[in-house]
Design goal:
single chain, about 100 residues, alpha+beta, about 40% helix, about 15% strand, elongated
Length: about 100
Amino acid sequence: MKLTIKYYPKLPKRKWILIREGGAYEQHAHFLCKKDAENVRRLIDSNKYPYNKKYKLAMQRILTEEEFKKLKKKQRYYNVNKGIRRANACNKYKQRKTRRL
């Protein structure tokens, strides 16, 4: 798959565009800076799943559904010694602490 990065100075905000050559018209994404476009291109070339929301949306536009599902996901690190951390338990503790004061 060939990807090209182009700069359009007349566009109002997102002037950098990453386009899939030979793809449909919808298979492109706009970026604020060239570095973001290069990062997405690097992720696609290395076949890695993006955890950044901006990159994820851009890659969903550029790739087909089957290609996006086949991306390699990094296994999350889980420290056994710390145990399970729940956000709700932390919030309840903070609420109790503020009520007592």
